[in-house]
Amino acid sequence: MNRGILVTGGGHGIGKQICLDFLEAGDQVCFMDFDEALSREFEAQYAKLFYFYGDVANPKSLKAFVDFAMKKLGRIDVLVNNACQGNKGILSDLSYEMFDYVLSVGLKAPYELSRLCRDQLIKNQGHIINIASSRAFQSEPDTESYASAKGGIVALTHALAISLGPAVRVNCIAPGWIEVNGREDHSQTDKAAIPAGKVGNPSDISQMVFFLIGQSFITGETITIDGGMNKRMIYHGDWNWEYRG
Ligand code: NAD
């Protein structure tokens, strides 16, 4: 379709699958990633794929990325804010600086990129897709930084949808466990614990990106894709669930 697509963290995993599916659809894709070796290798395989090196936590790199993308693509129709990394929290004594870094990657970068792409997205009646996590809604111990970034991006999504609508639709996807390294040896118990009976794969997320950008009456929403994990009620002693604290 020759749309201009921007993806962060496109060198591996879910972001890479999203890039591949847009290329397959005939679009031109620009991605930012700080894993240079993986990303250069990926870029070399596709004429309509353009790689920009940088850490999304650095606002100067974000500006340079959008300038680069405009030079290469000439337009921006879809922004996918995908890059993020997990980190720990209060039980690990995670420092203020490290907590702030996780927010810079997972929350401040999506805001800044939305701001930098705003005029293009309005002009082209485009879409922003944010990638959160089921950890925006549920927690394990010692996950404050990641949970906060992911909770923040869910709220950023509805705030942006209200500010930028009706021209731009803004939605979010909250994945559960997605296998990004091609492993197929998950234990039967791991699989059975998930109501869908399996671990997800990057296409499960990418397909939802395409569904959402095909919609005109869905905006501000977060769609959870976790194989039903967040719907399972767990009480020690019921239905074989055992708490080993
Ligand atoms: P991944 O580690 O497979 O790939 C992430 C890519 O982003 C890598 O290429 C990495 O180099 C890049 N990246 C990370 N931080 C960056 C930064 N600061 N600047 C530039 N590039 C950066 O990760 P994934 O599993 O595909 O995760 C993609 C998104 O999905 C993330 O937002 C993640 O939080 C979310 N998510 C993943 C899962 C899962 O189970 N895989 C579950 C819930 C949410």
TrEMBL record:
Gene3D superfamilies: NAD(P)-binding Rossmann-like Domain (3.40.50.720). Keywords: Oxidoreductase. Its EC number is 1.1.1.100. It comes from the Bacteria. InterPro entries: NAD(P)-bd_dom_sf, Sc_DH/Rdtase_CS, SDR_fam. GO terms for molecular function: 3-oxoacyl-[acyl-carrier-protein] reductase (NADPH) activity; quinone binding. GO terms for biological process: bile acid metabolic process; fatty acid biosynthetic process. Belongs to the short-chain dehydrogenases/reductases (SDR) family. This is 3-oxoacyl-[acyl-carrier-protein] reductase FabG. The gene is fabG_2.
